[in-house]
Amino acid sequence: MWFVRFLTSSIGKKMVMAVTGLCLILFLCVHAAGNVTIFVGSAVFQGYAENLHSHPVIVFIFRVGLLALFLIHIGVGLLLWQEGRKEGKNRYVVNTWVSKNPYAMSTMPYTGLFILFFVLIHVFGFAVAPTHDQMISHVIDDALSNFFYVLLYLAGFAALFIHLSHGFWSMLQTVGINHPRYNTLIARATWVVPGGFLCFFSLIALYLLTTSTY
Amino acid sequence: MELKSNVPEGPLEKKWDNYRFSSKLVNPANRRKFSIIIVGTGLAGGAAAATLAEQGYQVKSFCIQDTPRRAHSIAAQGGINAAKNYQNDGDSIFRLFYDTIKGGDFRSREANVYRLAQVSNEIIDQCVAQGVPFAREYGGTLANRSFGGAQVSRTFYARGQTGQQLLLGAYSALSRQIKAGRVTMYTRREMMDVVVVDGRARGITVRNIITGEIESHAADLVILGTGGYGNVYFLSTNAMASNVTAAVRAYKKGAGFANPCYVQIHPTCIPVHGDFQSKLTLMSESLRNDGRVWVPKKKGETRKAADIPENERDYYLENKYPSFGNLVPRDVASRNAKEKCDEGQGVGPTGLAVYLDFAEAIQRDGADVIFRKYGNLFQMYQKIVNVDPMKEPMMIYPAVHYTMGGLWVDYNLMTTIPGLFAIGECNFSDHGANRLGASALMQGLADGYFVIAACVANYLGTNKFAKVDETNEAFLSSRREVEDRLQKLLKNSTGGSAGKCTVDEIHKELGKLMWDYCGMARNKEGLEHALKELPGIRQKFWDKVYIPGSTKDINQSLERAGRVADFIDFAEIVVRDALARGESCGCHLREESQTEENEALRDDANYSHVAVWEYTGEGSEPKLNIEPLTFENVTPSQRSYK
Amino acid sequence: MSEINLTLKIWRQPNAEAEGKVETYSVENISTDSSFLEMLDVLNEKLTHEGVDPVAFDHDCREGICGMCGAVVNGVAHGPEKETTLCQLHMRHFKNGDTIVIEPFRSRAFPIYKDLMIDRSAFDRIIQAGGYTNVNTGGTPDANSVRISSQQLELAMDAAACIGCGACVASCPNGSAMLFTSAKVSQLALLPQGQVERKERAQAMVQCMDGEGFGHCTNTKECEAVCPKGISISNIARLNREFLKGIFTGRDD
After folding, report:
1. pLDDT band, very low/low/confident/very high, at B286 (cuts 50, 70, 90)
2. What is the CATH number of domain C3-103?
């Protein structure tokens, strides 16, 4: 069957990575948009959170969808990693990288796994663990006034930055977006998008650390 | 030895049509019953294998490299000629024919050359259909350039990589047939012998380079597309693996070898610069379209090129040949470079080089335009010599490049052994005593795509074939000969390497002897000297050559040794042929036979013939046979490019 | 011209089955005008005189076009010069006293025959899977019957310049043959002559590539960086598009 052939081919697997990666980036954008309310005030943020949760169907779809995206992205990623390890760059006595930025691409699985670790803590800390009578804005304020907790967050954002500094361009290349007219733009976006996420989310963490009301 | 050219009846332009009409054919359904061996996967061999397989024959294809895509046709840079007249500048089939036969100094067979010109147009169509990216004009039509010795623009090209692109076209067609199961591909095989059963070529003996195994392969006929023998000179522009072994094996089995002394020395190569050198690199002749060739007027000049004022430069080609200037044919350009260097006007550390200067072209057309045209060649030059031709003139010197001589074939491309065909550079047929630029690719593909299939059908259709397989006594005895020979090559290897010499050392010695006495200019004394020296080199080879390892696995020293042994044997007929041809013609310049202006002087009364050498046994002198050349459509004239 | 002395550490492996190891040799008075392979010739002449088996390496045209030669020099396929095959790498790029580590191109799909000689027949099989137009000899239309813009043609020629040396595979952390495969797919996708089989070609060639044991492309750009002909990874993007288009809109199944 053509779709199975697509999914089992090397390019197909890479495309699954690219598409799920793109979806996750888009989710991050939505997530970031919602988080803007934090800067407006604790109450506004709480309002946003409550409004969001008043649509359980949407929340359910998002949760299941996200979980699926994550699982596919991670699962296929690990599969590709394991396949790639059959060869390994270290098959030579002397190993030299010729291309630029080898750091980000050679650490994709590691930064990916670290992001997973971070996401688990984030989700369990803010979405699963809190009981219903706790205000979400308070939970977050509470957690992010802890210096070490914030440090962990910053590390997570840094990992995301590194992951995307290769991943963003790589995603576009895999789906075939590569054109001399846009390549400079893509190269810039490969720094601007991850950099934007890094700055924005770090700012929230630091903002909450320094302006804790509790 | 009977030399029947089998040229068909009729007027020149009808001969090929008449041939095809009167030829026997093989019914499409019957073709699969016939098997064909093709040795070599260059333009000729690769194209022939693909074409014959498409027509339904069972083809076995052999190559020495790890894949058929690497044959030395790949290194041709400049282009391929065709009489398309796309530029509307007066070209025609007859003009291409005339230029080719005149360029060859009237030493080729009219009918063969005319056929070549006729099929040239189909080659371009074929290659474009395969996806060969020939250069295009802005408007999308095919671009042409003019090339050494031609006054029309008829050369099609793909940057400086025309040979590569054409070969990859043939390789892709071949790959398609391999996939379809109609070609069985044998890579990394070296042909060691041709097997003749009942007077007909019925197979070959090869050595598997990886396993060392000697293999027999039987078929109904054998086609050799094994290239030229330029490496007899050690230093040439040929690839390292290019060799004469297949042709010499065929010669020793009874195939006549025609005109071995016709060796083309290409004028624009990078000069030799050390003893370590393993090969010479050609710079495409197209450079002469914009580059001006000059040497300093003063002998022993020590100033840099840029410091030599205009009036102290000798633009000798432009001065001597006002109408062709820097675009004179290869032999003329080469010989004049040698003359200037012999007179002490040569440049560079060895004094064996002339300048090829782009300064004027850069000034006229702008650096961008010149770089776009020749950038890849300039980069190649800079890589090797470490000098940028955009800033300083190139230094060039002639080098052995192409061999017009080869196995004698009739109009059917069949050698004097029935069932043994030779195509491409391996045969002698189309270029006479000198080949024009961009004609080698044309000939290889003409033979492979368009000519050989008709010849094969005719041969298969007119003969009955008894079943022959690899257990036939002829195959067994051929294997024994091959194995004995390999053992003989290894006989010096016991008792260590002390006091012995390597294969390359002897090859260099042979090459130097050939270059010095049978190179660009030859004379009786020198040739006789070479003939006297050759047995000594042969003796030294068999007594002293040390080859490490065994015959049973990969042994590159052994491979080279086998080839050099054949080069030594072969060198003898090159020298004999040069000696026997007392005239000058094309690339063959006998110093005794020159005009007052030091141009090659032909002697049509005595030498208007093909010289065909017949093997008469080990240790006995080869016999010279003659195929007279008659010209009905052109009148041999003294070539003049003034 | 000057002369240099070098220490060479070369992978020696007598045959496909044997264990290999790095051996150390020294060569003296190497002209800086000589090529890397000529330097190896000097070593081999010396080894032969010492009665030692010379280093086996593949080479043929020695002018950078046949694609036969290639080795990993100090961790870089074809050595340190950009867009240069091993045979065109000249010794002036090394210094007196340098140690040079020379290893064969390695990949699961390229088994080693001996020393630096490898088996690249997998590349042939990829081309056999679809790297051609299905035209027989003869009966083709006039070459000028279809116009092709020179810009488009140049793009196709950029891709067609691939020499099939295998450096892309050797340098790729995953041993991927995407650059090689994409070069042929691109050439034919960019030309009108390649359109008939366009939808099947990429699929067939990628399927073969995967089956031969080449890894997937992980966009490290190492292939492009070592490619002696400067083949761009924009061809890989094109292959991805061709593959996508072919598999989602192809007709047969």
Report:
1. confident
2. 3.10.20.30
